[in-house]
# Entry
Amino acid sequence: MTFAKLITASALLAVSAASFAAKPTSIVFQSNEESADGQAYSVYQVKCSNGKSATMSAWENRRKWCVGTELNDECEKKQIKAAKEACDAV
# Structure
């Protein structure tokens, strides 16, 4: 019986910790930019539920969304996924 209580308590703690993670509350366009090699991209400001802000960028006509202003392999296809990652990073 004690083992079952331990498992239940661990699961509840994990769920409650996830609910306190910072989440995006707004995404606002900042500017259009051009990289050193001539690729056009857009910069967005993400405001998070913890009161902090993060920057993310959209590349390839908003097909790739990246945390920060660098195009890399960890970019997302969906804006909200990139915004969540940006909030987790700050």
Q: What stands out?
A: The longest helix spans residues 2-19.
